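2 proteins. here.
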Amino acid sequence: MFAYTLKTALGFGLGLISLCGLIVNLVVVIPVYRLAFVQNKSPIYVISFINIVTDIVNVLMATFYLAPSIIFETYFFSKEKTGAIPKLMGSTFMFCWYLGSITQIVMAVNRLVVIYYRRSDLFTRRNICILFGFLIPFSLLLMYMAQYGFPCCAFVFDHTVLSYSYYQIDDLDNYPNMFIDLPLNFTSSTIATICYALIVWTVRQSTKGIAASLNTQQLRRSRRNREVTYAMQFCFISMFYTFSWITFRTFPVLIGDKGLEWFVSISTAVTINSSANALVYLISNQEVIRNLKSSGFNVFKRAQTSSDAAINSTDGHSVIRHSHNNTTTNTSKY
């Protein structure tokens, strides 16, 4: 008989959040695909498309497996967490997580090269496709090593903790965590932080150069708002990613075996992280918004309105170039 408990309510809550994340990702992935492969806009959309696809897989599993398993307190088709289905889900999740972590690095370095070093010739669409042609098999290799190459400890979907867990075997060391997961998570967040810090500094410096020559407070405020928008778009995705893996690390230490209901915060943080990329594009990327409005959900239809305005381009190099041109124009007037 179905019993409604706190765990049941938390499972429903996680399912609702995951479903919302799935909808947002499905809405955004279509215009991102068009911008990346149909309209051949900035190569950054190729990176974003791959990132969103991995996010879709994660929220799909959270919506249709993890949340129901929490609600009904079962692993489905298996009596133990080490069964084929929980381990398959865990392996799929880890592949997407590894690829997503590496994609965070690629995206941050891409933004740094384009904005800070003003080089847009290195991350061409062709080079990015070649790069991911290596990174996808590499992520599969990492997943296989973590899940099947070590005697302990496979990553599984675990309804008993309303989240995910490593399957610990006696006193064996958790080698996947020691040699793969923690180093990759830390490296990804560190590189992203350094890159985005340099990006924010670069945009601030260029904006200061413009603001010094502006005549009205309104224009200065507009420049400032644009600076903040770009800083948010650059940093939010990395912030959600870092928050999700830190939550996974800290909650077991802080809570232990008591108050397991709080562990749903881990799966919720992961779901929010898997929705962050799409949310940032849907809220702050005008090119994606215009493309969605003009072409709807027709995957292969080109947007009928121009979306090449420099101030809204995801190619940060155009921001610096636009800033430089405005500074030159204002200077020439005098």
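next one coming up
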Amino acid sequence: MKAKLAIASVIIAAISMPAWSDTFKQEVPQAVLPMHETSKPVEFDHLRHTQVECTQCHHKNEERGMSFTSYKCASCHSTAKKDKSIDSSYFKAIHGRKALPGDLGTRCLSCHVNEQKTRSKDKPSLTGCTNSSCHK
């Protein structure tokens, strides 16, 4: 009798597992979110980071629910000039995206106008189309 009860309990638990796991399932946010904890505000697209575990950036907090642990992009994306060609480099993460219609986060000038202000005059323009570092 105990064996039948144990088997029945295991079967019931196994059947209810999918429904129970949905309670803890967290959807990936669809929105591109502004990250202000970085040295310069950046747009963070969760859909481009689905291969990364959520817990690498977020943790559960009893008082606030899910919270963000401040990381710099460079903790995952190398900013070293020698690493520019690596797929996970900061350069490729930013410059390797194609702008889609309505995709405001991927417009060159959204970053390059501000960057140009800090750039020395002897370097190629980041904002002009003719003779710029993009269009030679």
